[in-house]
Amino acid sequence: MDPDARRPPPPVMAALLAFSLSAGARAFAAIDSPNVQTALNDGVKSLYDLDYETSRKTFRRLIDVEPDNPLGYLFESGQIWWQASAEYGLFKGTPTLQGLFEQDIEFAMKKAKVMTKARDEATKTDGNFVLGMALGTKGMWNILRWHWLDACFEGKKALKHLTTTLKADPEYYDAYLGLGIFDYQAARLPSVVKAVAMFCGARGNEKRGLERIRTAMEKGRYLHRQAAQYLASIYIIDQQDYARALTLIHGLRVDYPDSPYFKYLEAVIKFRLGDWNGSLTQVKEIFDLFRADPVLFQPKLLTFVCSLSGPDCLGRHDVELAHKWFDFAVENLKPDDPKEWASLVRLYRGHAADILAKRKEALADYAWVLEHPDFHDFHARARECRARPCDAATDLAYLRALSRNE
After folding, report:
1. pTM for the model
2. Which three-class secondary structure state does DSSP give residue 18?
3. How far is Cα 264 from Cα 254, in angstroms, rounded to an integer?
């Protein structure tokens, strides 16, 4: 089966970077270094800027400088996995990244196993933590391929190593994120695989899982931001508790004020809470980045469109909401708004109308765009979609091409 065709819910995958990047959560006895801390800080910032290539290059430099350090491999695999959660179809479109991801996981596990055999207890504890995270990531990869039994057993091994970590050091609070993810997701497995989970003893506990994730958020030394992001994803996608999600996103924006990803999440949440003007303000902030450098910004668009919906990207429900939002944006255009903004909201409203089979409305918006000054590729897109309806498949192909700078 296509690895991207039936994947876990987006929160699972988005959290795996937290799972992986948390390897920097302690002052590792044997593998911490200035290189590790620099790579972690710079790589995460680039990730939340949705600059995936720069983030991955940052972690690759750590691997080149410290090839025997498992953290570089774990960081890089986490970055690739996070990108795959945001850009639906990534592995299918770029199989080399899939191969690199699998290779990184194997190297991380191999080098962490050496640490678990060390005489020094701190090194051994850190090794168990790294190995637990790598096994958990490998288990999630097996879920992507519908290898449920393999995934279950990998998950149980991960739990063993993370539990061992906490027995050795009860204040190793960052380990609670991995345990919480397992508890939460095991409790929410599709009914068709419940029997497999029961067979290998993975029952899960949603309430306990959320409590453990909160523990990592409140007490983790380095993981609190990633735990907050994971909880926000749960509140947005699974529970539709937008008020709680907004509080968490506000906290993350304090740490990453320039992140277009967190600006986007705030815009989505405000829209769902009924604060349409607040949502519009946030999207205009994001548009200013697009307007300043469209070529640099355009690879980020696929993440905005698909990161919260995964395989349901551009599904009818989401597109109906988008159509309402762009209707509101058009109705609230101001005389001093940039002309590029006016063209964008009409072009995108046209795309939404096309997907919803409202062809007459779509053609009116495309005509308006073509009658006004061009910006970036707006005229080309309007002409293309006027000649032939731009359905969901066409728009996804376009967004994927942009994400690869094609």
Report:
1. 0.88
2. helix
3. 15
